[in-house]
Amino acid sequence: MKLAIVGLQWGDEGKGKVVDYLARDFDYDVRFQGGSNAGHTVQYQGKKYIFHLIPCGLLNKNVIGVIGTGCVFDPAVFVGELGDLKTYDPDVEKRIKISKFAHLIMPYHVLLDKIREETTQGIGTTKRGIGNAYEDKYGRVGIRVGDLYYPEQFKEKLKANISRKNVILMEIYHAEPLSETEIYEQYMEYAEKLRPMIADETTILAGAVGKNIIFEGAQGSLLDIDFGTYPFVTSSHTIAGSVSIGCGLPSVCVEKVYGITKAYTTRVGLGPFPTENEDAMGKNLRDVGKEYGATTGRPRRCGPFDVEVVKYAARLSGVTEIVLTKFDVLGSLKTILVSIGYKNADGFDPFLASRLEPVYKEVPGFMTDISHIRKFVDLPAQAKDYVHLVEEYTNLKVKYISVGPDRDAMIKV
Ligand code: GDP
Ligand code: IMO
Ligand code: MG
């Protein structure tokens, strides 16, 4: 089975939890886009793990994790994350492959992202240098993971980049220049640590005939560089079409796509959010759902489920089955609002996103703790009705329901 996991909202849908839950049946877990802007949280055996760059299926010891070509790779973040993960599995390095084709995030990317965010052009990024690294990739001046092993070539590329970036830093932002030597030495140290893990993942995956591969999406469909709420988006393609280009497999490589969606909606960072609720309901969802960013700790904006957003995202990735997450969080609401359409548009349109006026349906809440329930039949009637309502309005099948952060808090429908 070749299965892709994509988020159907603005990120943080619970992709990490779902990948960790399913990964026991997979041989490979492949990240195909994004970088350390991702924060995928997994709770297993009472412990919480937050993955940024490393594929989170690795808590399952049968899994080999691949960081693919479509990712942007920050070695400093990776080395830190690897150190943490080694307390779980000292041999985890043997199960990690990093694409030599992936572009490196350099200190100037992170610095320029931070500076830009703090000036008028800010869109609320994670300040991880993501957009800046992709800019250089598509501007054809980027430095790739594979360049680390040709020191002269690496030095030359670094020199050319540093001279340009330092002009920007000093002339435009009146900031201190960066030292080429320090960065060179630091990255050569990383190169030694990373060496056993660097690979051509296209060959490995092409050879994985008959193996099961899960493709772990990062961010959400509404943050896709083209189809999201541009310019309030990330700088990669987050929809399922990105899988093949992000790891060098043929375009038919994905057999099935599961869309992950919360039972309500959240967004972190700036940009339009039609069902945002700044009243008691939104506050309640934030408090009960612990809605704070896994990468930056920022409070997430919260609001009701938006049928049109999920339908739009599902169409883009060919999703027919969804995983409904954080369903337990709705257990705190007396009545639940669901946006079933817009007064002023037929469906979700990113160009109109800031002006869309949701039409809400109000349904009774279930006012019960459902986090211990593991069978659909055991859910309260109102909870079952909510699931059916989501299915009816989105025309998608709910395949799993997540009722808590732990791996086993899952209902197979
Ligand atoms: P991702 O980026 O899509 O992997 O999602 P995040 O990890 O950023 O955010 C999801 C948050 O919700 C994490 O803190 C998870 O531990 C938590 N979570 C996931 N599923 C559930 C669930 O069904 N119920 C509750 N209460 N929390 C959940
Ligand atoms: P996961 O994988 C939620 C958002 C940022 C900002 C915009 C651009 O955990 O779902 P960037 O740093 O990518 O240039 O920021 O995208 N963003 C996310 N929001 N979850 C994420 O990842 C995100 N990654 C980026 O908040 O609005
Ligand atoms: Mg997240």
Could you characterize the architecture of this molecule?
It is built from eleven helices and 19 strands. It is of the alpha/beta class. It has three domains: 2-101 and 197-257, Adenylosuccinate Synthetase, subunit A, domain 1 (Adenylosuccinate Synthetase, Chain A, domain 1), CATH 3.40.440.10; 103-194, Adenylosuccinate Synthetase, subunit A, domain 2, CATH 1.10.300.10; 261-412, Adenylosuccinate Synthetase, subunit A, domain 3 (Adenylosuccinate Synthetase, Chain A, domain 3). Strand 18 (397-402) and strand 19 form a beta hairpin. Helix 3 (107-117) packs across helix 4. The longest helix has 22 residues, at 151-172. It is globular, with a radius of gyration of 21 Å. The two termini are 20 Å apart. The model has no long low-confidence stretch (mean pLDDT 97). The chain binds guanosine-5'-diphosphate (GDP), 6-O-phosphoryl inosine monophosphate (IMO) and magnesium ion. Magnesium ion binds at residues 11-12, 39-40, 294. Guanosine-5'-diphosphate binds at residues 7, 11-17, 39-41, 43, 289, 294, 325-326, 328-329, 402-405.
